[in-house]
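Renewal narrative, Specific Aim 1. Our central claim is that a sequence can be written position by position from structural information alone. The example that follows is taken directly from our test logs and has not been curated for this report. It begins with the structure tokens describing the chain, in the order in which they were read.
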């Protein structure tokens, strides 16, 4: 036994895994199947150990070793020794040697855990979790470092790329309309990609070349926030992460963090990790990436109010609270296919627009970490991952994208108009679907990764969010803000349960109905690319408690215009245009109160590759009288406008069936748009 320390053999209490501060010392609890187990203590930064304390033979319950050691642990760090081999504590809450991001200099330095003698005390004050239902959430997906690391973020150098930096951007998130922040893995992980020796190979492992695992989807030390994501000369990741969470909650925002498991972990360990972050760090939810023991987590009483996101929840009995949610690429891939005009997509369109199970939520997105950004989705046919150093072999080849005629950046007006239009189309598909919308950071102002769809190793301008685009692509930003607010104001687009396609309230109309070019006659033939969806406002409420408006959403992803017949509205109601993605001069939208009335209330011409959202609102009597005088003129003007539209039809080169074909050269006009 080390001098100044002794084992308290009378302490028979059961403690949580890891180190727990007790009166006069600490308790060590560690799972291991080894025959012997010991704690090796070091002075901070020392190469040689200060001493060794071995677990007594009888200090073991099953495969869990536990002992209380009395003494002064101030300034000490520890690792465990199992059968002679040292290893960090898998339940450690902080690690030394990991402070500097991506430093090759620390490669051979040991990773140890400081002994916590204070019990992790933190004043949460009056912290309250917002507990926002899925149908009211708008999720914003960030990477802690990439979100504010770029100099254009406007933050001080010390705050950039940190938890503190995320907290300082809360006003921006609130202004955008975000309710929930989803954070890529914030746990301590080894970002240096260190080649390993292949078993049986006579050759030694290669030397690391400085390549990084920027994303963090790898095994890590799951009970510790990443030290390199904290600020200041004295890194305090635990305090800084909690400060960030508390600031988010004060602003009414939630935090969902991502945790990656590769399947080598015991299910009970995964459960311990998720419970820990919920209890210790007050997170509002966890998205499980990779392996997930869904039944164990989904039915755990401690987690019954925690948002849990995973690819699926088959076999899980949902609780009373709707806290589980599906999270997969199905929406993104199908809606992108429809967006670029692929055939046989209408059934998938209506499925995703409506999909919102009663007991399990669903998260929808048009772009996410692994794939093209929203801007790249309309700018590239094929991936451009050469910067990853793998000869462009990495990353998926199935992006369901269309470059609108030119591969990569373009200054041609027609190309840029089409790209903006397609982005508006994509955003309306996302935010007018019943599931919970997720927006990838920077997609609200045209972020590009230059065609890289697998930027896992790019710790540079490819991955860092360039806030300067907020000015150059302000029209996209304004559109996103408006469509988020529009969704919040009209609950028919985010009902608590999935639309029934029935008139179950006996109000004269179903909650949602499908229409073709003729009303009440939907057609789903494989060659069709147009559909109308009618929403009855009597099934929704506005924020002030009044009945919602009526809506008709016309989708036309064909490369030719089509005339849609319009459903009849109740007496004294008129159709108004809320969105028309073809109208670039008004950024595709008419903010509240400025929606123009359709003079022709029977039909509307929807231009090629366009979504139009019509709002059925009651028209005051005094306005109707004045409009009646000009009815004849309005009809004649409409006919003239219709002729003009048809005369100015533009023909676009379409993505070829069976797969996308790259353009003849990146950045070169291929003549895809023919006036």
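The sequence written for that structure reads:
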């Amino acid at each position: 036994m080390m001098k100044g320390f002794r084992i308290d053999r009378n302490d028979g209490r059961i403690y949580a895994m890891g180190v727990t501060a007790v009166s006069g010392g600490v308790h060590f609890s560690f799972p291991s199947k080894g025959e012997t187990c010991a704690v090796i203590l070091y002075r901070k930064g020392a190469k040689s150990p200060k001493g060794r304390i071995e677990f007594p033979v009888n200090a073991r319950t099953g495969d869990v070793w536990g002992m209380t050691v009395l003494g002064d642990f101030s300034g000490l760090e520890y690792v465990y020794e199992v059968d002679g081999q040292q290893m960090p504590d898998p339940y450690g809450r902080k690690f030394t040697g990991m402070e500097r991001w991506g430093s090759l200099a620390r490669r051979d330095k040991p990773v140890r855990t400081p002994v916590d003698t204070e019990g992790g005390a933190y004043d949460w004050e009056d912290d309250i979790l917002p507990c926002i239902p899925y149908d009211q959430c708008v999720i914003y997906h960030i990477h802690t470092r990439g979100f504010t690391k770029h100099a254009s973020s406007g933050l001080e150098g010390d705050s950039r790329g940190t938890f503190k930096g995320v907290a300082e951007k809360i006003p921006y998130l609130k202004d955008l309309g975000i309710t929930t922040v989803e954070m890529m893995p914030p746990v301590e992980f080894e970002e240096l990609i260190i080649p390993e020796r292949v078993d049986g190979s006579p050759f030694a492992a290669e030397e690391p070349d400085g390549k990084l695992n920027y994303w963090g989807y790898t095994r890590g030390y799951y009970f510790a926030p990443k030290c390199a994501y904290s600020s200041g000369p004295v890194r305090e990741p635990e305090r800084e992460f909690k400060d960030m969470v508390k600031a988010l909650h004060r602003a009414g925002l939630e935090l969902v963090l991502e945790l990656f498991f590769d399947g080598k972990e015991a299910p009970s360990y995964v459960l311990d990790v998720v419970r820990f972050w919920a209890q210790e760090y007050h997170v509002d939810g966890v998205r499980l990436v990779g392996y997930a023991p869904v039944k164990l987590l989904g039915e755990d009483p401690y987690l019954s109010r925690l948002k849990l996101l995973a690819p699926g929840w088959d076999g899980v009995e949902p609780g009373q609270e709707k806290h589980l949610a599906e999270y997969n690429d199905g929406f993104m891939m199908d809606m992108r296919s429809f967006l670029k005009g692929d055939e046989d997509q209408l059934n998938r369109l209506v499925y995703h627009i409506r999909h919102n199970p009663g007991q399990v939520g669903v998260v929808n997105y048009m772009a996410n970490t692994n794939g093209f950004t929203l801007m790249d989705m309309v700018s590239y046919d094929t991936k451009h991952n050469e910067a990853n150093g793998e000869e462009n072999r990495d990353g998926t080849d199935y992006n369901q994208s269309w470059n609108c005629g030119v591969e990569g950046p373009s200054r041609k007006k027609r190309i840029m108009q089409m790209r903006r239009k397609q982005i508006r189309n994509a955003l309306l598909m996302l935010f007018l679907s019943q599931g919970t919308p997720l927006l990838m950071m920077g997609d609200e102002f045209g972020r590009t990764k230059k065609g890289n769809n697998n930027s896992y190793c790019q710790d540079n301008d490819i991955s860092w969010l360039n806030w300067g685009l907020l000015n150059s692509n302000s029209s996209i930003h304004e559109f996103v803000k408006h469509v988020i607010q529009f969704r919040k104001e009209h609950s028919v687009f985010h009902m608590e349960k999935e639309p029934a396609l029935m008139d179950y309230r006996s109000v004269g109309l179903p909650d949602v109905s499908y229409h073709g070019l003729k009303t009440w006659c939907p057609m789903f033939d494989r060659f069709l690319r147009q559909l109308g969806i009618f929403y009855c406002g009597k099934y929704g409420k506005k924020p002030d408690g009044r009945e919602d408006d009526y809506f008709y959403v016309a989708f036309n992803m064909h490369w030719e215009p089509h005339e849609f017949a319009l459903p009849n509205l109740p007496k004294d109601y008129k159709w108004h245009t809320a969105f028309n993605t073809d109208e670039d001069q008004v950024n595709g939208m008419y903010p509240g109160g400025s929606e123009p009335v359709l003079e022709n209330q029977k039909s509307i011409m929807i231009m090629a590759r366009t979504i139009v959202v019509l709002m059925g609102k009651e028209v005051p009597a005094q306005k109707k009288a004045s409009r009646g005088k000009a009815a004849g003129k309005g009809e004649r003007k409409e006919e003239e406008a219709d002729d003009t539209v048809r005369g100015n039809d533009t023909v676009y080169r379409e993505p070829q069936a069976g797969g996308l074909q790259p353009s003849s050269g990146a950045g070169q006009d291929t003549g895809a748009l023919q006036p």
